[in-house]
Automatic annotation (TrEMBL):
It holds the Pfam family GST_N_2. This is Glutathione S-transferase. Residues 3-84 form the GST N-terminal domain. It comes from Fertoeibacter niger. Signal peptide: none annotated.
Length: 289
């Protein structure tokens, strides 16, 4: 039972990130269909997912189209009650409150700091409206932990749809070095280290050319998340593996890591692995064998 999901550029589309996390972070099989933002690709893709007007939008295995990330979360939770998309018990209501406010609010933060997973700046001079949004985020995050008794990385106990909805906020705080307190910084760090977030960002780093709309002239700094292993693309093999770790197809593109050569079936499989080898369990199984 595999779903189809229409998404935009992984490096920039915050809504798409939310939608994709609802599958990858909860072990629900999905095929992603990508379109580049601000091009004719997006309306052409959405025409296949009517009546959706934007990404993300999913199609169920039976063919029903479900636009909007909040609707996707609810539909998947109904269809996969054991996946843990919403936390159990009273914490479920808190998680839904969080997701609903994130879905509809924080317009100043969204506007001043569009998501960009390819860069991190030293700062962005956030105006008062953005600082107010950050204060509200810290308030509701603390409220959620107090209401649910959560003491770990996530807001309502186990990782849930509420956390998936805030993943792009973590990316914004990271990319623009926004001022938040220690508890919020710890929550952001948990997102940056989350396996699904790392996979999405690895793909986003190599998913097409930079989008000029998102470029800012602020001084840059290194990305504060986990430091990837030092892999690089190479022109030729032979590789230790003869089949791509993801597709099982014969290898044609190659990567070097720690003096060893590994093969993949296409440039994207190789490049997403070069971006962050440890994000990919199927590759790491070969690397550590």
């Amino acid at each position: 039972m595999t779903y189809d999901l229409a998404i935009g550029d992984r490096g920039y589309s915050s809504w798409s990130l939310r939608g994709w996390l609802l599958f990858d972070a909860f072990g629900i099989p999905v095929r992603s269909h990508t379109a580049r933002l601000y091009t004719d690709e997006l309306p052409q893709l959405l025409a296949k997912f009517a009546p959706a007007r934007t990404v993300p939008v999913m199609r169920t295995p039976e063919g029903q189209v479900v636009p909007e990330s909040l609707a996707i979360a609810e539909e998947l939770a109904s269809r996969h009650p054991d996946a843990g998309i919403w936390p159990p018990g009273p914490a479920r209501a808190v998680a839904r409150v969080l997701a609903a406010e994130m879905h509809a609010g924080f317009s100043a933060l969204r506007s001043h700091c569009p998501m960009n997973l390819r860069v991190s700046y030293q700062g962005c001079n956030p105006p008062p409206e953005v600082l107010a949004d950050l204060a509200r985020l810290e308030h509701i995050w603390a409220w959620a932990r107090a209401e649910t008794g959560a003491t770990g990385d996530w807001l309502c106990g186990p990782y849930s749809a509420a956390d998936a909805f805030f993943a792009p906020v973590a990316a914004r705080i990271t990319a623009y070095n926004l001022p938040v307190g220690p508890a919020a910084q710890a929550y952001v760090a948990a997102h940056l280290a989350h396996p699904s977030f790392r996979r999405w960002r690895a793909m986003g780093l190599v998913d097409g050319a930079d989008q000029e709309f998102y470029r800012r002239d602020y001084p840059q700094r290194p990305w504060p998340g986990p430091v990837p292993l030092a892999a690089r693309a190479v022109d030729a093999g032979p590789s230790e593996n003869t089949a791509c770790p993801y597709s099982g197809k014969p290898v044609s593109d190659f990567m070097a890591l720690d003096g060893r050569i590994f093969g993949f079936c296409n440039p994207f499989c190789r490049d997403k692995t070069v971006a962050d080898p440890e994000a990919w369990p199927k590759f790491m199984a070969i690397y550590t064998s």
